[in-house]
Write a structure and sequence with these properties.
The protein is α/β, with parallel strands linked by helices. It has helices at residues 27-32, 57-70, 83-94, 120-123, 128-133, 137-141, 146-158, 165-175, 180-188, 191-203, 222-227, 246-249, 251-266, and strands spanning 8-13, 35-40, 76-81, 99-105, 210-215, 234-239.
Amino acid sequence: MSTSSPGWPVVLVHGWPVTDLHWQGLLPLLHRSGFTPVPITLPGLGKPAGSTTSFRKRDLAVLLGNDLSERGLTRFSLVGHDWGGTVALHLAAAMPNAVNAIVIEEEILPGIDVDIPAPGAEHYPSWHGPFNRTPGLAEQLVPGREHAYYGTFLRQSAGPAGLNAETVRSYIDAYTTYDALEAGLGYYRTRADDITDIQRLQQNPIHTPVLALGGRYAMGAAVADGLRPLATNVTALVLEQSGHYPAEQEPEPTAQAITDFLQQHHAGIE
């Protein structure tokens, strides 16, 4: 398949606490560039967790791979945001012949020790990880206060540019369901297993090309720094006006960077 051939699948996997609205600015440019976007919502991230009992990212990557196989997708690119980035990297490691390129937006994988540089360190929250991992705490404090809990994280993590108010409301509504809190906490409470899995990946870094996208007012250059122990071919880009959501906060430059990267690594694929 050449770079001018339409239809190459690009699987989009968002994180917490957002929904597939995160990709709304990216989808039109992907279509115009000849790609077929395939937005995926992981269990519990704005939709019911269903029968999913393990939120270990390696297990979620297996579920995602099975889902894509059932859709008939055998070769594709991956774009992962936040927890979706960790799942995407696990999937690429497990299916190296299927994934030709990966974009990781605003994720430092569990157990990777890198410092978030200024000014992101002054904006990106540090409270939510320990809070979400503490057994029983969020269960007692969050119900009935979802606007304060999710709203505070979304506001702080977005940095000075902020997020669209209607989109924030839709995110909070999507996570104000009977099982959304339990599932969301589950993503954080598998940390020990996730760290073990990432340590295994470090022993055998992937060779799939990776574009690391950071927001200057969130993780910034730490996204790329954190991926270099896990991948041999990492390209770094920091979006200067963004917080944790470059695809929403700077949709045009972010989308252009993603499509340029995907087209570069799509050329010559048959």
